[in-house]
Please model this.
Amino acid sequence: MSEDRKPRILIIGAGSMGILTGYHLGLAGVDVTFLIRPHRAKALDNPQILYCYDDNKLKEYKGYSYITNPLLIAGSNYDYIVIALDGASMRNEAGVDLVKTIGNATRGTNTKIVLGAIFFDLRSWFLQVSGLAEEQVTNGHLDIHAYSTKALTLPVEPPVDPSLIAKADFAYTDKLEDGFTVDDSSPAVANGFAKIYNANGISTCAVKPALECAVAINPLFPVFAACELMGWPKFQDIEREELWSHVVASVREIQELNIHGELGKQAASATTEAGLAAALVGWEKLMIPFDLQAFNRYHHGEKLKSQGREHLQACISYGAAEGKPMPALKDLLRRVQEHAVAAA
Model:
């Protein structure tokens, strides 16, 4: 990338992750283009209005462009492509076709890929389907919690201003240590993206070891499954009884998978019922006045429900390949599936 021109980044998907990532990249001076479905074009023809819980103010995001045809990726010479789709969408028929199109368009070029989806061992799958080189692709995820105000209404606590939220397209909070994280599966991709993102001046992108990210993220999905069974209570109100013991056993089973190496085994030995509960309560308190569990009910319990189920099944499959029966996780997934049938 020449030092005398703006970085050019394509973001695939203009949901909450795509828009918030684009907003911060725009503040960093990036030329941002979105690849969207045609029905989203009308919405993106107008500036995106964002409500920030952290300062109770509205932000305006404009100055981006968009395309609706994936074939236009070829020859566009983007510096980075950020895939802001969920893991289930990436792996369905349309998603596989898109991944192949990305591979064909960027193979042998200098375009680098950040996989923004969360899914078990997603990068290995993406490399196989796309045919891209390992040094061209890394994992990433948005740590900013964001949602479409048209899809979700969260409970309001002072000083949140509901009249401002009503004017916004998306609402978000950037309360965690970093707003975006990339892992070092491909250090050059990760470090280059972080440098660009961090020029925005208000949110930071961290580069972390890939194993550390996997061990932190993959075991969260049993927690979301159990919350669905319990009706999404606040973390501080969860009763640590039989189901919670099952959750912690499931978390340990995932941590102990060989893909997580020695770090996973160390995490499993340190995971306790009280410790996990305390960590979740701490996360919840940090996010106030943003209602974390109301967000999780929508984000993980509705919007990304398929991703969560498939993630748990993938963990079970990897365990089977390693000769590990994963009894707690299997039973938890069975309970969730039966619960969904009963609720239908």
